[in-house]
């Protein structure tokens, strides 16, 4: 078959391309910030304040975390974790007898490892749930870190990542129950401690973190205009030190004294470890207090200054008082005084000035010393490592002194709350004591019935390291 060529008209029709479709009208270009608005964002970042509204309707070109502020938050978070591991572990570990040193280290490790996934699962949400309406407890709106975006800001503060805010608060949640173990050291079963702490987090810690630091919290004076108790707590005087200190007292009373307590020496087995742990706690506390400014700004600097002054002054005051009453200034006295000073300044660090922190340091070195040296003997309780004497007494005093010394010239949030502040601090203190005491008593009695609290006398006498963990701290 012969194939004929296409007719010229047909060939031309085939070779001519079809006309292109009409182009769509270009979409309206998104508004961009003006130069003035961009500069305003930079000024907001430098001053650690909110990004200003833009009259152009444009979104900020720096919507995420600010590098400097967020970097300080990352460092602060690592420092607070450093307070527990290894700071508190070594501080407490040195103060117990060597047959129990690993038990204390394991308890600190157990707190860190158990609370971390618990915080992810529900703890963060019960403390800071974004949709929470209750003044007493959060909700499950951020369970399993739902909505916690590392690239977003605002959950904690204007320029820090929501992810870093969640991690920063996790480190507080870790160290708080770890403080309790100092009161019951050397005489409580590991499984019982872990179950107690698990229940205590739900009954005490999560509610107090919410009440004191959530925007709808019952006692959050700076953030909640409708707070029933308009108290202030910069870094955890009530949330951390009072809850753990008063809970420690109740738990050690229910648990009872160590075998042969008062009849045989129970001196620290290593003041070297204790001193090293104290130094780590002091360094880590800068993350605790200065980090609670939630940015590298003037408030953070003030907290750094007051923390240093109060800790050093309290260490000196404790040693001097011990020298007067006991005849010698001990290393343990210096260490205890430093920690007491750090505890007392915690709720006030970003609210008071340098001179006030010196006064608070003197009181921190004297009052907890009297509680440890005399009140404990007078009342006859066995607070093994003086958790109540330092954290309970010191945290309570710090919360009250915050109401006296808080200065709007140091931090402007104090101004609107100054009238009636001291009374609100007393109310916050009273609520914290009652809640912590009752909740701890109930939880301890439940654990006692279900699991028992103490090992048998033979195990306690031999030491908890081998019984609970199958290993010894020292093999020589």
TrEMBL record:
<keyword id="KW-0812">Transmembrane</keyword>
<dbReference type="InterPro" id="IPR001905">
    <property type="entry name" value="Ammonium_transpt"/>
</dbReference>
<feature type="transmembrane region" description="Helical">
    <location>
        <begin position="426"/>
        <end position="447"/>
    </location>
</feature>
<feature type="transmembrane region" description="Helical">
    <location>
        <begin position="267"/>
        <end position="287"/>
    </location>
</feature>
<feature type="transmembrane region" description="Helical">
    <location>
        <begin position="331"/>
        <end position="352"/>
    </location>
</feature>
<comment type="similarity">
    <text>Belongs to the ammonia transporter channel (TC 1.A.11.2) family.</text>
</comment>
<feature type="transmembrane region" description="Helical">
    <location>
        <begin position="71"/>
        <end position="92"/>
    </location>
</feature>
<feature type="domain" description="Ammonium transporter AmtB-like">
    <location>
        <begin position="71"/>
        <end position="474"/>
    </location>
</feature>
<feature type="region of interest" description="Disordered">
    <location>
        <begin position="1"/>
        <end position="30"/>
    </location>
</feature>
<dbReference type="GO" id="GO:0005886">
    <property type="term" value="C:plasma membrane"/>
</dbReference>
<keyword id="KW-0813">Transport</keyword>
<feature type="transmembrane region" description="Helical">
    <location>
        <begin position="104"/>
        <end position="126"/>
    </location>
</feature>
<dbReference type="InterPro" id="IPR024041">
    <property type="entry name" value="NH4_transpt_AmtB-like_dom"/>
</dbReference>
<feature type="transmembrane region" description="Helical">
    <location>
        <begin position="299"/>
        <end position="319"/>
    </location>
</feature>
<dbReference type="InterPro" id="IPR029020">
    <property type="entry name" value="Ammonium/urea_transptr"/>
</dbReference>
<feature type="compositionally biased region" description="Low complexity">
    <location>
        <begin position="15"/>
        <end position="30"/>
    </location>
</feature>
<feature type="transmembrane region" description="Helical">
    <location>
        <begin position="164"/>
        <end position="184"/>
    </location>
</feature>
<dbReference type="InterPro" id="IPR018047">
    <property type="entry name" value="Ammonium_transpt_CS"/>
</dbReference>
<feature type="transmembrane region" description="Helical">
    <location>
        <begin position="234"/>
        <end position="255"/>
    </location>
</feature>
<keyword id="KW-0924">Ammonia transport</keyword>
<keyword id="KW-1133">Transmembrane helix</keyword>
<feature type="transmembrane region" description="Helical">
    <location>
        <begin position="387"/>
        <end position="406"/>
    </location>
</feature>
<dbReference type="Pfam" id="PF00909">
    <property type="entry name" value="Ammonium_transp"/>
</dbReference>
<protein>
    <recommendedName>
        <fullName>Ammonium transporter</fullName>
    </recommendedName>
</protein>
<keyword id="KW-0472">Membrane</keyword>
<feature type="transmembrane region" description="Helical">
    <location>
        <begin position="191"/>
        <end position="214"/>
    </location>
</feature>
<dbReference type="InterPro" id="IPR002229">
    <property type="entry name" value="RhesusRHD"/>
</dbReference>
<feature type="transmembrane region" description="Helical">
    <location>
        <begin position="358"/>
        <end position="375"/>
    </location>
</feature>
<dbReference type="GO" id="GO:0008519">
    <property type="term" value="F:ammonium channel activity"/>
</dbReference>
